[in-house]
Design brief:
heterotrimer, A mainly alpha (about 290), B mainly alpha (about 180), C mainly alpha (about 280), A: about 290 residues, mainly alpha, two-stranded antiparallel ribbon, 2 strands, about 70% helix, B: about 180 residues, two-stranded parallel ribbon, 9 helices
Chain lengths: ~290, ~180, ~280
């Protein structure tokens, strides 16, 4: 407010009706519908289930269960590993693409951007299922390899393993990486690149020393998207994942479903939140906050 | 989860729903031994039918429903059931204690238990029923298909019971899946 | 939402600042781009192909072309009801999300208050944290309140993650707003309400539309939050989820193709509208 002119400063002394009118509704709304539920989830995580009843007494039992079970530790490590892997692959795919679109896209740039978003309009579930049709035993890939004579008989190695899970995730979340990366490239001041070229910097050096640091916020913003989306998903592992490859999302959804142990499920949710927050902390420290 | 009970039965345990820690350890060992041969843990009948039809699996531990579905789709399939080592469960209707209209709920349950009601459930779900009224309503041919021609079979089924150490079951199952 | 600014930008071809074109032909980059688009569209091509497959299962082999799955899906009552529910849910959730998002954006842009940065990050939590967290937290909350799950609980869930989605582009656009315009309006004697509707809103209108469109899209196809909050009535993704578990036929592929076609038409139409507006 202080940056505004005198005609506005006069209003400062009065009760800031505008502030309350614009701040309170969203604040109250989100508090009642999101912050309180999250707080409730946190309190569930320190309650326990006894004979199918939820006992509201403080206990760390759920977290002990998680920490001391080798199976759950495996699931946590696998989930983080998958999420990191998917994020890195998506960065590697999106960077050259974003660079190309902003630099050489010309008047086709809006169209190319729309083409990235368009897949989001076809059902997410069906897109995941499509990978089953592509990678399966009688799938598109096997059929192609058979007709090319690469394989003599269909192979089972493409589906229901870590590979198919990772590939599907990389595909499903790719638009959420490409878009912030494109935005970041669009924001690059063009004279900077020209200056670098004028100083006889080779293109690679210009990219690495000038552009990369400037598009890093976009990369980090996209990374947080992809990482978080992968951390919580249970559809992809259950449709195309390995029979012994469940992720944290599967565990949580089963605790809130068939296993009916909400306190344990809440504790797992808290683990997911903590992991995402750690990732977020890194992003915030890199100063990518403005892009969130 | 039912798979745990099935393996326990197969290992010769008398009561598959009352397993000690060492029983569970045996079950786990057996399941881990079998795991390399497993392509997919199916969760619904539709998924399993698709797995067969798309060539992903050739053998499955399944419900009679899948056999019926696949035969109807003219998919070449056969089925065997282990004598005396059957597990099963029943879907139940329950009245919530907060029910606003318990009388209507009782009437509904009466209807579901009638021949018509049972036939309706079986037609929609493809599951088999457990009452003579239901068996009569669907006719003897269909009853044979659904293993309802001799209802004494039900006494041989180890019906699902709530398990005391359910947490351990869940954990065991997650170990197999992780 | 990080993806929002580019969406907004893409709707404003005029505002683009193209980097200088270079003479060297970037063959490598161009082929990479082509490959990536191929990768993005491969599953969609497969599902479109499958929707014409004259076979009862959603899988290869391809047994000939049929339009049966399309006629079946058009006559499918459950699909139609689910589609209507999805439109209702998405419209309602988008309305709520955009309204509260707009207010929040205005508060952040216009005022200084204690904990502003925290407020901004907190509002973004529903899209920073995985959807499953939102889903189970709201499920536990509604169950503790004794609220029955219905389309309304789904709408509330979607409105929650829709808020930051709508907030993103609006805030980006507001931050570019030249304050001198606002000053001028006040100097000419306008009251705050007039300034907002007459000066600020026209400036951010396209961003509001972009944010609302994005919120609508994400709500329309949402699965993870919806699974936990859904009652007896299905949205379209829930109906598809149900069918993937019971009876997997190419009809699902036909439904997905139809939805894609319709939404592509809507997107291109809105793109055309805004580009016309910009010139």
């Amino acid at each position: 407010m202080s940056s505004l002119s005198s005609s506005l400063t006069k209003r400062r002394s009065r009760f800031p009706v505008g502030l309350y009118a614009s701040l309170l509704p969203p604040l109250v709304w989100m508090t009642l519908l999101y912050f309180v539920p999250i707080a409730l989830l946190v309190s569930y995580s320190v309650w326990r289930l006894e004979a199918f009843d939820i006992v509201q007494e403080f206990t760390l039992k759920n977290f002990q269960t998680i920490v001391f079970s080798s199976a759950y530790r495996t699931v946590i490590v696998r989930t983080i590993g998958t999420a990191l892997g998917v994020t890195l692959i998506d960065v590697a795919i999106a960077l050259p693409l974003g660079y190309f679109i902003t630099r050489y896209g010309g008047r086709y740039r809006p169209l190319l951007t729309i083409l990235v978003i368009l897949p989001l309009w076809s059902s997410y579930l069906v897109r995941v299922f499509a990978w089953k049709i592509i990678l399966g035993y009688n799938g598109v890939l096997n059929t192609a390899l058979l007709s090319l004579g690469v394989l003599q008989q269909p192979s089972q190695i493409f589906l229901y393993n870590q590979f198919s899970t990772t590939l599907t995730f990389v595909h499903i979340w790719l638009p959420f990486m490409i878009l912030p990366v494109i935005t970041a490239f669009e924001r690059l001041p063009k004279d900077l690149i020209e200056a670098s070229a004028d100083l006889n910097a080779p293109p690679w050096t210009t990219f690495r020393r000038v552009m990369l640091p400037l598009v890093t916020p976009g990369i980090l913003a996209g990374s947080i998207n992809v990482f978080s989306l992968t951390m919580g998903d249970f559809i992809t592992p259950s449709l195309v994942g390995s029979p012994s490859g469940i992720m944290l999302g599967n565990v949580i959804s089963s605790q809130f479903g068939v296993s009916y142990n909400w306190p344990l499920g809440a504790a797992f949710s808290l683990v997911v939140m903590l992991i995402v927050f750690s990732g977020l902390a890194i992003v915030v420290r890199q100063g990518a906050l403005e892009n969130l | 989860m039912m798979t745990i009970a099935d393996v326990a039965l197969w290992l010769g345990k008398d009561d598959p729903y009352n397993l000690t820690d060492s029983d569970l350890a045996e079950v786990k060992e057996k399941l881990l031994e079998l795991r390399p041969h497993i392509r997919k843990f199916w969760t619904t009948a539709g998924e399993l039918a698709n797995l067969f039809q798309s060539g992903e699996v050739v053998l499955a531990h399944a419900w009679p429903l899948t056999y019926t579905q696949l035969s109807e789709a003219e998919f070449p399939v056969g089925s065997v059931s282990p004598r005396g080592k059957l597990t099963g469960w029943t879907d139940s209707w329950m009245i919530s204690k907060n029910s606003r209209n318990a009388d209507a709920a009782y009437q509904w349950i009466d209807y579901i238990l009638s021949g018509d009601g049972q036939k309706g459930v079986m037609d929609v779900t493809g599951y088999s029923g457990a009452t003579t009224l239901g068996a009569e309503a669907i006719g003897s041919d269909r009853a044979k298909e659904l293993y309802m021609d001799d209802l004494s079979l039900h006494s041989q089924i180890n019906m699902w019971q709530s398990v005391k150490n359910y947490d351990q079951w869940v954990e065991l199952w997650n170990e197999i899946r992780s | 939402m990080t993806i929002s600014p580019s969406v907004e930008k893409s709707l404003h071809p005029a505002s683009g600042n193209a980097l200088p074109r270079q003479q060297a032909k970037p063959w490598l980059l161009a082929s990479w781009t082509l490959l990536v688009y191929g990768f993005l569209y491969l599953p969609i091509a497969v599902l479109v192909l499958m929707s014409f497959n004259d076979s009862t299962i959603l899988s290869l082999p391809f047994k000939g072309i049929t339009l049966n799955w399309y006629s079946m899906s058009l006559g499918d009552r459950a699909i139609r009801l689910a589609l209507i529910n999805s439109v209702k849910v998405a419209a309602m959730a988008t309305l709520l999300a955009t309204l509260f998002g707009l207010l929040a954006a205005f508060a952040i842009y216009r005022y200084r208050f204690f904990g502003k940065e925290t407020f901004r990050i907190a509002l973004n939590l529903p899209i920073l944290l995985p959807g499953i967290v939102t889903g189970v937290a709201m499920l536990a909350y509604f169950s503790d309140l004794g609220l029955d799950l219905s389309l309304w609980t789904v709408i509330l869930g979607h409105a929650v993650f829709g808020l930051p989605v709508a907030l993103g582009p609006i805030l980006t656009r507001l931050s570019q707003f030249p304050r001198s315009l606002e000053e001028a309006a006040y100097d000419l004697g306008a009251n705050p309400g007039q300034v907002f509707t007459g000066v600020i809103f026209p400036y951010i209108r396209s961003a509001v539309i972009a944010g609302a469109l994005l919120a609508f899209t994400l709500s329309f196809d949402e699965v993870v939050v919806t699974i936990f909050l859904t009652g007896r009535e299905n949205t379209l993704p829930m109906e598809i989820w149900g069918r993937l578990r019971t009876n997997i036929t190419p009809e699902i592929a036909a439904v997905a193709t139809l939805v894609l076609l319709i939404s592509t038409a809507i997107v291109l139409f809105s793109q055309w509208l805004t580009s016309r507006e910009a010139t």
